[in-house]
Every structure is written in structure tokens, then in C-alpha cells.
Amino acid sequence: MFDWFSSLSPVFQAGLACIFTWSVTALGASLVFLMKKINKTFMDGMLGFAAGVMIAASFWSLLSPGIQQAEELGLNAWIMASLGFISGGLLLFISDNIYKLYQSHHPRHRHESKQESFKRCLMLIVSITIHNIPEGMAVGVAFGSVGAHLPGATLTGALAVAIGIGLQNFPEGTAVSFPLRREGYSRTKAFFYGQLSGVVEPIAGIIGVLLVLKVQLLMPFLLCFAAGAMIYVVVQELIPESQTNKQKDLMALFTLIGFSVMMILDVALG
Fold this sequence. Notes:
By secondary structure, this protein is mainly alpha-helical. The chain has helices at 2-6, 10-29, 40-72, 77-105, 112-147, 155-182, 187-196, 200-210, 212-215, 219-242, 248-268.
């Protein structure tokens, strides 16, 4: 199997690797089918869990690698990280206010609870999707570096990157599908949107392997950009919403559990 895989072009290698990472996202999202009834406390807990996953991913999967890559490329790490992080949050801030402006000009179509629910779900999906773009590109860059015979690049190392990112995607798929289920979406729709957040990885992976030499300069910014977008959603939507539950301390515990799970996956898989 390894010999067959190594005989493929870097483009096909990256494509297959990113299909794997996408499938793991879908597997995590599929856990929503195990639910038969909606328990508010459990679903609020899953919202807190999603917040913890996203906080941990924003640092170990995005900010830290972004800073490290910026240093390796001879860029000013703290400027790159700050600009990317603020830009990611600013994008969602602007999008949020544009959405509010639309609501104010279409009052007859506004139903507060449904509108807020839709906005919260949309921001969650967008933030996870944005986060998956640089991850897919990272896989593509890893395989592209092997094909370009860059120093230190090995096929084994590229496979390790793909496996690590794939396993990290499992709780991310869950982090999307369960909150959507909490907002009243059917299990099928919650699963669909949960796995949909990972669809961008194969696309980003192909782009990464084709533009490996040029994309490397953009990767630090993209990683930190995704981190800023994720933290904005966590602070603006997920944690406040999970804290509407009467058992606030329990919801905070779910956030710590989500953070710990993602941290273990990121640190253990390097």
C-alpha cells in the first residue's frame, strides 16, 4: 500500500490525504445520529464542548504553528500573528454587523429567536470552515514539499501531518453537528452541515500542493486569521449561549473537557 501511494503524484497524494481528513470530520459529525431526544443540558454542554475544542485548536493548530512558520520564513512573527488574528475576528465582526443591518431593514421578516439561531449556526459553520482551509493547505504543502524535494520533507512526515489533522477533525465535526442539533436542526441536516465544514480541506489541499512554494509565505497569516475567526465565535456566541443553562458550572466543565480533548490530540500528534 505504501509503495502504491508513494508512486502517485504529489497532487493525488494530497487529494487522498485530504479526503481522509474530511471523512474523519464526517465521522465526528455522524455522532449526532446516536441522539434520539434533545436534552437541553446535554446540548448546552456540547455547545460548551465546542467552545473548548475551538479555543484549543486556535492555539495549538493555528496560532502556534503560524508563529513558528513565520519565524522559519524570516518574517516578523508577532506582527504576522497579530495582523492575522485580528483580521480573522474583524471579518466575522463586520459580517455580524452587516447581518444586523440587513435585519434592521427587513423588520417584517424578522423573528428574533429564529434569526439569532440562524446567525449563531452560520457563524459556527463559517468559523470551522475557515479553520479547515489552512489545515487542508498544510497537508497540501507537506506533500508538495516532498514532490519539490525540499530539505527535510519526507513522505512519512507528510502522512503524519495528514493523520494528525484528520484525528483532530473528529471533535470538530462533533463541534458543529451537535450545536446545530441543539438549535432545532434535524439529525440529517446537522450531520450534513457538520461534514460540510470539512469539504474545503481537499480543495485547499490541492491548492496547497500546486502553489507550495508561494503559499508558504501566506500560511502564517492564514493560520492566525483562522484562529481569530474561531475565538470571535467562541466569545461572541458559544460560551454566552452555553451559559444560559441553569447549571453554569457544569457548562464550564464541558468547555474544559473540550479544550483538553483537542489539546491532547494536538500535542500528542505534534
